[in-house]
Write a structure and sequence with these properties.
The structure is a single chain. By secondary structure, this protein is α/β, with parallel strands linked by helices. Helix content is 32%, strand content 23%. The longest helix is centred in the N-terminal third of the chain and has 25 residues. About 9% of the residues have low confidence.
Length: 275
């Protein structure tokens, strides 16, 4: 179970799988299973003279959270070293469900794969659907299914990237589980974190989920082709986001019709050269 948000658990087994291959189960390192729980049995006597026991569990939540995040950061440092050794430009794509994250990724791969080398790690609780979409583009991809987990962690990514074995000098895209809360706390060893928000979500998202916007380098505003049909204030969104993170850079795009994608592509190419 995740000590920071309560997700996961023994029934939510993590699996890593390439499209068309056998499932590889990710084995936890023990950080999630050995929480600091103290169990005590207390006997209670009722008015009728009967007795039974109640088990009380006392959890040191703060210590467990610190342990898990510290371990994740250590594993993220390992990832970063691996990525640097292979000269991988690694991007962590984060968003709420329905932002168009996979559609944006598909369009990016279609438009740039002739000139740049890509690999993709897909993160979802269940199914290979997104990995199959990327596989159809003839891009190396591997799927992490987190079961009941709500985010990717650095050790999962390490297991996945070792199996994926991307080419040196590639761009590795990690599509995180759709969630604007927990993924903000978990460094995966990425070079850049990109938060995607669609204009259908409301301009107050940065205020509601500040940690995600604070920890991101880029904010992609997707589905701009729908702006004429919505009561959405684009400038207000940017103002709110900049209140949280003054260094945030924005790209306004439509993954559907391609509007604004060239600016996003130019940024990708420029950052890639900086490695």
């Amino acid at each position: 179970m995740c000590g920071t948000c309560g997700c996961g658990g023994p029934e939510g087994q993590i699996s890593i799988q390439k499209p068309g291959s056998d499932v590889h189960h990710h084995h936890e390192n023990g950080m999630h299973d050995h929480h600091d729980h103290h169990h005590t049995d207390h006997m209670h006597t009722h008015a009728d003279g009967s007795t039974h026991s109640h088990e009380h569990s006392h959890r040191t939540v703060i210590e467990v959270e610190q342990d898990i995040l510290q371990h994740n950061d250590l594993m993220a440092a390992r990832n970063r070293g691996y990525f640097e050794a292979k000269k991988l430009f690694v991007i962590n794509l984060v968003s709420s469900p329905g932002s168009g994250k996979t559609s944006l990724l598909e369009r990016t791969l279609k438009d740039l794969k002739k000139n740049l080398s890509f690999a993709v790690i897909e993160g979802d609780q269940q199914t290979l659907q997104d990995a199959n979409r990327i596989d159809a583009l003839d891009i190396p991809v591997i799927q992490i299914n987190t079961g009941k987990g709500c985010h990717l962690e650095s050790d999962m990514v390490f297991d996945a990237v070792k199996q994926l074995d991307p080419k040196n000098d590639s761009i590795l895209m990690i599509e995180n589980v759709g969630n604007l809360v927990c993924p903000s706390m978990f460094d995966l060893g990425e070079r850049k974190r990109v938060v995607i928000i669609s204009v259908t979500e409301g301009e107050d998202k940065p205020l509601k989920y500040p940690d995600m916007f604070l920890s991101s380098d880029i904010c992609i505003i997707n589905k701009t082709d729908l702006l004429p049909y919505l009561n959405f204030d684009l400038e207000k969104l940017k103002t709110y986001a900049l209140q949280i993170n003054p260094k945030l850079q924005f790209f306004e795009v439509s993954a559907t019709n391609g509007q604004g994608m060239e600016q996003w592509y130019d940024w990708l190419k420029k950052e890639r050269k900086h490695l």
